[in-house]
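Hi C.,

You asked whether I'd gotten around to modeling the 336-residue construct. I have! Everything is below, sequence then structure, no commentary in between.
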Amino acid sequence: MTADVPAVSLAALRSLVSRVTDRPIVVVGDVMLDQFTIGRVQRISPEAPVPVVEHIGDEVRLGGAANVAHNIRALGATPRLIGLVGGDDAAATLRAALGTAGIAADGLIEDRSRPTTRKVRIVTTRHQQVARVDYESEAEAGGAIEAALLAAVDRASADAAIVVVSDYLKGVVTPALMRGLAERRARTGVPVLVDPKIPHLAYYARTTLVTPNNHEAEAATHLRIRTNADVSRAAAAFRERAGCKGVLITRGEQGMWLLADGVEGALGATAREVADVTGAGDTVIATLALALAAGASTTEAAYLANVAAGIVVGKFGPATASATELLAQLSLSLGR
């Protein structure tokens, strides 16, 4: 075990950011609509000990797998997004938001038996969250809906540079879907990256790289993570239990831990100020995918993802990092 992953050059990382692939990056997973109801709090309700929020406005953003695709698009590449929506107004709003972001919505499969996954957050003008209401179904896709998903993934992956799985336990990620992706990776060598949820740990066998956060790694391995020695043991145990090739554990203010392709070690956090960690994992896996598709080593891709995460946690809500922001932050982070 080493304390830190090997250093990479600023010139190499800059080159990777500029080498955006022409081949599409497939994103399959649980798409979401993040809705923010924004208001001002000046008093407590006389009916109950809760704040009264005076409504100012509403804002919607892409979440879940849709936010992964948005991050890929913001960095200049072309995502092919595949997921499930309901037959409701939220689906129409989600499609419109994807169109505004320049992302095709033709890979969204409509399932009228479920709602479009939507998280409604009531927040103050200072970005303090008062409450959240979730509209969702956790039932895994089956029958004709699962078949439609599998067919869409197969079509989209035919000429893809890489496949990203964004798993939020909202029905898209099934054993059959993951088996199909693993078999495709074995045949073609196209990498499969997974942003995981621990109840699906067994689904991720034979994938290229899985990106649990610190809490998920602890839950999967039943190990406490406090030191580098702890996280090294947890990464090895996670890789064994998931049956994946590599692991990148995201650790918030403590950065990341990489165990992949014969490299192991820490990457220190780059964020100067943390405003909101919502969607940071989406940015990490999107940047990893884009960098690997551009020819990066796993170490170089992890460096870029670490820097991109440091950018988006300084923003409110699910956010993206542009290539311009990434290049500027690279110079600051590497200090040369």
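If it helps when you're writing up: The radius of gyration is 20 Å.

Thanks,
B.
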